Amino acid sequence: MIPAFNHSHVLPPFEGERLTSAHSSPYVVATGEFVQRFAINAARHAIIDGFMRYRGELRRLGFVRGFQWLDGSFVEDVESREGRAPRDIDIVTFAHPPAGMSTEQIRDMMQSHADLFDHALCKAAFRGDTAIVNLATSPEWLVTQTRYWYGLYSHRRGDALWKGMLQLPLDSNDLEGLQMLTELNFEGESNAGST
Q1: What is the rounded distance in angstroms from the CA atom of residue 86 to the CA atom of residue 105?
Q2: What angle do CA 121, 124, 129 make, to 5 degrees?
Q3: Domain range summary for the chain, segments of one domain joined by +
Q4: Most CB within 10 Å of its CB: which of 77, 89, 152, 161?
């Protein structure tokens, strides 16, 4: 369950009196819960649409085992705090490489699908500030990468406020979220701030 925003307009880093893994960030969510909570205006709807297409393309290429950490102003109440909509969503994908592919084949696939793996192209195509961490790498490198992303995502840019983030499994049922997204209608509402 996604906790309510705290008085600083962010997800709390943990719930309750003390930090426990059951009630701390990153909060594990399903796609439907994510869409229901955050697709509240036209700008957010457009960002989620791009994010869902990004997830679908990654899975189509074989990235089906792992999870994504979601962060940035998208998972904050930036509308109340700054009077604007979020511009994108921060995503780091922790994934096992596609099964049965060599390192060279994966490298070739990443080059031929630059819109998914080149940071600038991915942001333009899917409205996501993205990165990918290989879960099949050495334990030492995995710890280093996890420490880096957790440190970056668990603090707000600018004032270093400690905050929470979300975790969405790659194998979550996206059909429910896509159906919910399709049923939402923000016609006539400005999409300002979503580019």
Answers
A1: 36
A2: 80
A3: 23-182
A4: 89
Please, are residues 151 and 25 in contact by the beta-carbon 8 Å criterion?
no
User: Are the C-beta atoms of 168 and 88 separated by less than 8 Å?
Assistant: no
Give me the amino acid identity at 148. Answer: Y
- pTM higher than 0.70, yes or no? yes
pLDDT tens string 141-194 = 999 999 999 999 999 988 999 999 999 999 998 999 999 998 987 765 544 444
CA-to-CA distance for 96 and 98, rounded, in angstroms? 7
| DSSP, residue by residue, the chain | -PPPP-TTSS--SB-SSS--GGGBSSEE--HHHHHHHH--SHHHHHHHHHHHHHHHHHHHTT--SEEEEEESGGGTTHHHHHSS----EEEEEEEPPPTT--HHHHHHHHHHTHHHHSHHHHHHHHSEEEEEEETTS-HHHHHHHHHHHHHHHTB-TTT--B---EEEETTS-HHHHHHHHHH---TTS--TT--
155: β partners? 162
**What is the average pLDDT across 16-23?**
65
- Is the bond preceding residue 26 a cis peptide, omega within 30 degrees? yes
User: Encoding tokens for residue 62?
Assistant: 């074989």
